[in-house]
Design brief:
Layout lengths: L2 E3 L15 E9 L12 E7 L4 E9 L7 E5 L8 E5 L6 E4 L15 E9 L8 E9 L6
Parallel strand pairs: 1-3
Antiparallel strand pairs: 2-9, 3-8, 4-7, 4-9, 5-6, 5-8
Length: about 140
């Protein structure tokens, strides 16, 4: 089990807690990413700042083969937003947020990353994976 960082991670724009409104970020692992991926690997795809509330999660990939699955979450809960879904289905796959965990919507109390976990099957290495995350910042929704 290895943790990787998507190649463009250090160049991402990161909203500040004082930015109020809706942000959309895209994490992209190109087909020629040069990583050797294995079952149970984690890829940090997008950064979210303290105070973020994730409202959307969409993951897209080509055929990862070998019944490979992708879950989307963070360090605290690896499938917080998308449970492990089959992305080794013989064609391109799109999965929307489908895992309404207890505690979602979740407000981040520290800067974090939204990650994909290659939860089952050894995925093909040269397949592009994109993750689109929408989140709110600068709002206090404490009851």
């Amino acid at each position: 089990m290895t943790t990787h960082v998507a190649p463009q991670a250090k160049n991402w724009y990161q909203a500040k807690e004082s930015d109020v409104g809706y942000q959309k970020v895209i994490g992209y692992l190109p087909a020629a990413h040069g990583l050797t991926l294995a079952q149970n690997d984690t890829v940090q795809m997008v950064k979210v700042p303290i105070g973020s509330i994730v409202t959307d999660a969409v993951v897209m990939s080509g055929d990862l083969t070998n019944n490979a699955t992708i879950a989307v979450g963070d360090l605290g809960v690896t499938n917080r937003y998308i449970s492990a879904t089959n992305h080794g289905a013989g064609s391109a796959v799109i999965t929307n947020m489908n895992q309404p965990q207890a505690g979602v919507p979740y407000t981040y109390t520290a800067d974090d990353t939204i990650d994909i976990v290659l939860a089952a099957g050894n995925p093909a290495d040269n397949v592009a994976i994109a993750l689109i995350i929408g989140y709110l910042t600068g709002l206090d929704i404490t009851p």
